[in-house]
Amino acid sequence: MRYLPLAGRLGAGLLGLALAACSQETAMTTDTSAANTSSVTTHGALITRAQGLEAPRAEQRPVTIEQVGFTRVDEYQWIKDENWQQVMREPEVLDSDVRELLDAENAYLDNVMAPTEALQERIFQEIRGRIKEDDSSVPERDGDYAYYTRYREGGQYPVFARRPVNPETGEPMGDEEVLVDGDAEAADFDYLDFSDMEHSPDHRYVAFGVDVRGSEYYEIRVKDVATGAIVATLTDESSGDFTWANDSATLYWVWRDDNGRSKRVYRQPANGGPSELVYEEPDDGFFVSVGLSDNNNHIVINAGGHTSNEMRLIDANDPAAEPVLIAAREDDVEYYLTEASDRFYFRTNIDGAVDYKIMSAPLDNPGRENWEDFVPHRPGTLINGVIGFADWQVRVERENALPRIVVHEYATGEEYNIDFDEEAYSLGASAGYEFATDILRFSYESPSTPEETYDFNLRSQERTLLKRQEVPSGHNPDDYVVRRIMAPGHDGAQIPVTILHHRDTPIDGSAPLMLYGYGSYGITIPAAFRVTPLSLVDRGMVYATAHIRGGMANGYQWYLDGKLEQKINTFRDFVSSGEALAELGYTSRGQIVAYGGSAGGLLVGAAINLQPDLFAGAIAAVPFVDVINTMSDPELPLTPPEWPEWGNPIESADDYQTMIEYSPYDQIQEMAYPHVLATGGLTDPRVTYWEPTKFVARLRDRRTDDGLTLLKMNMGAGHGGASGRFDSLRETALNWAFALMVVGLADDEVDAIAAE
């Protein structure tokens, strides 16, 4: 697929990090009235039984840390294995004391959740029943072939395949050729993840990246489609990012260093000949990626941090060519290119264009001095991405927390919008393989409407429905209600909140509610259709997503207002969203389950420190909760790149003070907390295994009530959890059973299942 930098960040995965604690700390403003002595609300026999079980207690080995004029004590620093880099690649070398603790935590969790095993199985089967097992993507034409991905009945992993196309109609015809069989590749491994999967321009080869540990180091393999033979394995030290040159004989791929940072681009013959270094990034705060321009004429090397980047171009028709810099990096300036027939177009925030504008320059002289305004900056209208075609430019914008697609015709300069009607929805747009076409492929969905995929004729504006997501077990959108409210924030900000509930759920304060959020890196959580929350919603829970500051739901300024010294806004927005939902009758205080993963786990941890009595429970998945320690360890993969996001507590006392006032691990108080489930992955390079482990250890030690503090550590996976499409659902089923248990919806169903 063509290079499509739809987001200005390095990716949704650029999150998190490592650890610490505190002796001198400034606590967040917390409503602890009667909280220091009271217990969390218990719900039925399941909670009562669980509270009678003995939880593990991690040994305390206090370490005093002096830093920028502050002192903190971390009693659980030892949980971080000194050889953590090796553990990422060889989990079996984990320190025996740490392994013993993790095994004990997993055993305790299994014991607590044992009565819900049948409920978990029922939830798992429900979710699986909503997934079409023998599903297939809509074929994407590239020349004489149509490429697609499919799953077989019962298959856990994708099958990548192609079929010849009718040259007149473009419709697939003839026999299928399997390029890579994911189930076969996974046969000998407990974990498998594919990165890029790209065929060569002449369609002879397919290259793909494979990670079998969850550590995100990928092996790049090149396969001859005709013979089925692997003709080369280029590396096992790749980020999984690569692209073909137009000679179909050369690959460009990205190398990761021992700390997991994407630092170099290599050029290498696809048959496995010697590799050649093309570019090396000297700044640990910048990662590199590689791709193709829209019309496949240029290899694009992007070196980017969180607030700035620079791009280099290589002639894709001349694999020996050297990279040429477009514009040198500047602090807080980003630009991303789209290529048309005669010009480059740049989505950029230069000259104070907070929500981005589009500029253009000649193909033969794209330097910064030649950039001209094409689409001006419009405050409050975020230009989120641009796709280039020969005759058209398509941009994805967001305004008032809703996306839209805007089409521009180069020849006439005329524009029009593709609009939609629901209160909340999500859009996706695909560049596809072909450049000289009038067809745009886009998708539409909402929390109640399964995904619909369309081909849209840019000239006639006709939509052709290609596929509607099938829910085999049945789904009626009319059974569900989708609402968008604006929650008042602590400072008057209006926070968009998307709500999904069953039409029969009473909105009188009696329903429990799951509140999901993220709120970092500018990532905006779409109002998309997901089959997993339906198992909560069908049982009477309301499911809400808070589009809080730190994301870009309301434009780039919404992101800026939730980072660095203003990061506390992210957490207060989440709390404000929960309070508004209670005031409007969607739930009530003490009946909310907070849910978030990675930086969203930071959100959950901070929120329960701020307002513990608002929540019945909290699920913190692979949570970035030990902010000070992580951001103080420059050896961790994502620490230097993320100083512009969080601050640098190694050099700045102000940054240190800001972080420690919200860092969930450092802010754990002696007070009552909601029930908590934290999860992690042993080989996770983004949020390392010791973060949730330390958080659980300290929370269990300091909480003054008898609430549950649980840890689920996946000993064979990384940041994304289990890799198979069905195995991962078991982790969701565990989370949902926990949520139902802590709000009192599990007991009767568990009893009913037992009586069947």
Automatic annotation (TrEMBL):
It comes from the Bacteria. Residues 65-468 form the Peptidase S9A N-terminal domain. Residues 529-743 form the Peptidase S9 prolyl oligopeptidase catalytic domain. One of its GO terms (molecular function) is serine-type endopeptidase activity. InterPro entries: AB_hydrolase_fold (IPR029058), Pept_S9A_N (IPR023302), Peptidase_S9_cat (IPR001375), Peptidase_S9A (IPR002470), Serine_Peptidase_S9A (IPR051543). SUPFAM superfamilies: alpha/beta-Hydrolases, Peptidase/esterase 'gauge' domain. GO terms for biological process: proteolysis. Pfam families: Peptidase_S9, Peptidase_S9_N. PANTHER family: PROLYL ENDOPEPTIDASE-LIKE (PTHR11757:SF19), PROTEASE FAMILY S9A OLIGOPEPTIDASE (PTHR11757). Belongs to the peptidase S9A family. This is Oligopeptidase B, Serine peptidase, MEROPS family S09A.
